Amino acid sequence: MESQRGTTMIEQSFDCYSAGFQDSLDELPDCFTITDPYISGNPIVYASSGFLEMFGYSKYEVIGRNGRIFQGPKTNRRSVLEVREAIREERDIQISLLNYRKDGTPFWMLFHMCPVFDEKDGRVIHFLGVQVPILRRPKPSGAGLNLCQDGAGCRESVLRCYRREVHSMSVERALSLASGSGLDFTGVDVDGPCDASDLEKRKSTAVIDNILTVLVHDGESTGRPVHGKRRSQPGTGQLGASLNISLGRIKQSFVLTDANLPDMPIVFASDNFLKLTGFSRNELLGYNCRSFSGMDTDSSSQFRIKECIQNEQPCTLRMLNYR
């Protein structure tokens, strides 16, 4: 039952896109995920085939889970906090992270995250995360170099002859090419730091741009345009992504309304409230709590609530509502 509810919420995450939206994403060869800050925990709602291949998980092991499952004992906590801060501030970030595959193998990657904004009201509806592996040499037995220890000069000399090819190819092709040249992504200097090259940074930016092009094009076709940059300021009553994530951690049934807007519309509904009432989040946000009233709802209870709101007083009562 819980699994079905999670699946339904994830499906509703893409209500703003067309029916063929996910098929368009499936055609992209790169390694990336999409998360939804309006679902508790900001879970992954889409993972590309390149991402699943790189991390060794199946789609069903990843969808609905938080990115924390890819962290491990040597993942730098300060770097994780920097990502959280970027989410809170609803901005882009490029940062090197040590993550772990399903089999426990650590590897360095460049993580590039950017928010996706609803062009109409300026709120963040998704976060797009691109993962580009940072090319490394295996740990030397005597002579030899660790790209992440010995730096930019060696890395650029190794990659220079591949620059054109790697820039235009998918993550899987880049992995294959690197393997053939004696480079590795695992097993060395897990304590870091490990800086990405300019090539890898350009790669992540190019992938972000490609995915945003798909999102923008699809949004235009459905009449609900999205963008990688905020085109308008969030309207009154729009909660920030960070606040949505924080509220989503509260495992109670509740809603928040905005008293500054006409008719006090709902601006947040918890997962447990959605489960209790049977509504989807899109069916509730922007609507008044009268949506739950019915023919046998006591009008005197409604009047008492209205009176307490006007007097800015707390109110506790029992009333009949409808799913």
UniProtKB/TrEMBL annotation:
Domain named PAS: residues: 40-90, 266-286
Entry keywords, A to Z: Chromophore, Flavoprotein, FMN, Photoreceptor protein, Receptor, Sensory transduction
InterPro entries named among the record's database cross-references: PAC, PAS, PAS-assoc_C, PAS-like_dom_sf
NCBIfam families: sensory_box
Keyword match Ligase: no
The UniProt record lists the keyword Transport: no
Gene3D superfamilies from the UniProt entry: PAS domain
GO molecular function: photoreceptor activity
Protein name: PAS/LOV protein A
Entries under Pfam families matching the protein: PAS_9 (PF13426)
Domain of life: Eukaryota
The PAC domain, residue ranges: 91-146
Signal peptide: none
BP-aspect Gene Ontology terms: response to blue light
Native organism taxonomy: Eukaryota, Viridiplantae, Streptophyta, Embryophyta, Tracheophyta
